[in-house]
Structures are given as structure tokens and as C-alpha cells.
Amino acid sequence: MNSPVRIGLLGCGRIGSMHAELLARRVPDAALTAVHDLMGDSAARVAAAFGARRAASTAELIEADDVDAVAICSSTDTHIDLLMEVAAAGKPAFVEKPLSLDLAEVDRGIAAANAAGIDVQVGFNRRFDAAHRHVRDRVAAGDVGEVHLVRISSRDPDPPPLSYIEVSGGIFCDMTIHDFDMARFVTGSEAVEVYATGAVRVDPAIGEAGDLDTAVVVVTHANGAITTIDNSRRAVYGYDQRLEAFGSAGMAASDNPTSATARYWDTDGPHGRPLPYFFLDRYIPSYEAEWDAFVAMVRGAPSPVTLADGRAPLVMGLAAWASVREGRPVAVAEIG
Ligand SMILES: NC(=O)c1ccc[n+]([C@@H]2O[C@H](COP(=O)([O-])OP(=O)(O)OC[C@H]3O[C@@H](n4cnc5c(N)ncnc54)[C@H](O)[C@@H]3O)[C@@H](O)[C@H]2O)c1
Description:
Layout: E1 5-10, H1 14-26, E2 30-36, H2 40-50, E3 53-54, H3 58-63, E4 69-72, H4 79-89, E5 93-95, H5 103-116, E6 120-122, H6 130-140, E7 147-155, H7 162-167, H8 170-174, H9 176-187, E8 191-199, H10 204-208, E9 214-221, E10 226-232, E11 240-247, E12 250-254, E13 264-266, E14 269-271, H11 279-282, H12 284-298, H13 307-326, E15 330-331, H14 332-335
Parallel strand pairs: 1-2, 1-4, 2-3, 4-5, 5-6, 7-10
Antiparallel strand pairs: 7-11, 8-9, 8-15, 9-10, 11-12, 13-14
Helix pairs in contact: 4-5, 5-13, 6-9, 9-13
The structure holds nicotinamide-adenine-dinucleotide.
């Protein structure tokens, strides 16, 4: 039997602390050995909660003998520098999305990882959601025939804090980026053109920060399929995540799970249970499956979400911003 893959985790914020818990408790073939965060308190809390060592620095964690692979879960603007350090140490890496908001930085990281020959998995967890994956598998098996349309609704229950919005890269590079990944994943085809529009319908402060909170994007793929994406930063009924692939032989769709299956009926009819509140409710099983796939990659399987898969949705996000600014469809090739 293989011994667990020993993982060191950088960044113990919102997503890093969730990953730490999964690695320590829910992924049988992984062990969380060390953590580090610039904020010592966060690292100390996560280390104590999940039985890991608190490393004194990123370098100490990356080079440690008890760290087989490194999970980069820190703020977006640190991902590429940390990936370069992990590449220099020759260890496999997990990198949260987005790789960066700067395409030149992404290319710098990809060049370093390729030169070092390390395996990297990017954190597009929705590929591991059982319902979304079923849609993609139906498409890949030819069950919907030739894909004509993909429709993605992706709506958050509430906007993140303004301090997050201001450094997030805006809705297209922070939020829609997951949907761009799903569009490529489900169709199995690259985007060639992006046409986006958006508005501020939820909170004027989001507009004052230079962002949008409501958006629609039309993506044209190389194989002729068209994906439409609609996003909102506030769905009052919960975290709304649905997708549909429609083609010449049928349709495959994924729906929202309810937070419980109980229902109640009265004179107004049936009343269901609410949707999961947010990604930490809806997507935990996908994050677990993401880590199972990471362990398999460290043990020799190909990366399930490559650096190229990390780069392409960023290009689509940048194209969406250009489209909104210029009021026209933007060819992906114009961006890079
Ligand atoms: N895949 C997903 O579903 C998902 C969900 C949320 C966030 N994310 C991504 O995860 C990343 C982190 O997001 P978050 O919401 O946890 O942010 P956060 O601000 O809560 O946490 C980021 C943490 O990184 C730490 N940090 C910054 N620089 C560091 C460095 N050089 N070394 C070590 N630690 C450092 C910060 O101190 C902070 O604790 C972002 O890139 C975000 O886009 C992905």
C-alpha cells in the first residue's frame, strides 16, 4: 500500500483553511504536514486545528523533507512567484485559480514549471462536481450528439467584501472564470470569441470599485458550439449553479442540489428546502475529488487540470473585459 502524499499548504485564508481540513481529515491518501501564511495567526490556527507543523517561511515549507507536494492557496497575486519556487524545488504543485490576473506572469510560471518538468494541477474544482461531470461525460460520449448550445447559470448568494472585489480582477476574472473553465470542459472545445455585457444591479459600491455585479457572456467555440453564461453576485435564494448542454441528439443538464430532501405541502403547494448557501456548502465533494485527483497526479497520472487549462479561462476573462469596454465581440486570439 502507498503511504499518503505529504502536502505542505501555503495560504491559510478562506479557501486554504478549507483545503487544510480536507487534506487532514477527508482525503485518505493525503496528509497535511506543514502550513504557512504571512499572517502568523492564521497559520497557527490552521496548524493547531489540523495537526500540521507551522513552517517559518515559504522556502522552509517548500524545501522540507516531509513535504512531497505543495498546495498554493494564497492570494492570487502570489501564485506565480510561489509556483516558481516550487518548480525550483522540483516538486508537484496545486495552484488555486486564477493563476494570476496578468497573462505575462502566467506565461512566466508556465515556462518555469515546464522547464523544471513538474506536474501542476490548477484549482478548477467544478470539473470534479459529479453533476457537472456527468454532463461533460454525456457530451464526450456523444450522447447529446453535436453540441449546439451550452447554457451556464452561475449566481452567488452575496457579493464578497469590497476589499476583495478591489483586488479580484473583477467579475470576469474572479467569478466567471469558473464558468469559462466549464464551457471549455463541457464542450471539449477552445473558445474563439467572447462577447460580454454587464451592469451594476446589486450594489452601487461594486460599480464605484470599477466592477460589475451582473453579467451575460456569449462564447463561441472552435467546434461551432455557443455557450451563454449568466452571472449575478446576489441570488436571494442561495447559490445557484446549473448547466446544460444541448445538441443534435438530446440534452444533458445539471441542477442545484437542495440542502436537504425534506419537503412540506400546504394550500400554496409544495415548499422545498433552500439551496446550499455558497461554495463551501455546495462544492465540498468536488474539492475532495479534486484532491483525490491531485494525489493520483503526484503518483504518476496526468494532470486533470493543466496549466494550459488554467491559462485559457483567464484569456477569456480578459477578453470579456475588453468586450465590455469596447462594446464588441473580442476574438480570443486578440488577447493571447
Ligand atoms: N476554487 C475555488 O472555489 C476558490 C474559492 C475561493 C478562493 N479561491 C482562490 O483562492 C485564493 C485565496 O482566496 P481566499 O478567498 O482564501 O483569500 P484570503 O484572503 O481569505 O486568503 C489568502 C491568504 O493568503 C495569505 N498569503 C498572502 N501572501 C502569502 C504568501 N506569500 N505566503 C503565504 N500566505 C500568503 C494571506 O495572508 C491570506 O491569509 C485566491 O486566488 C482565490 O481566487 C478559489
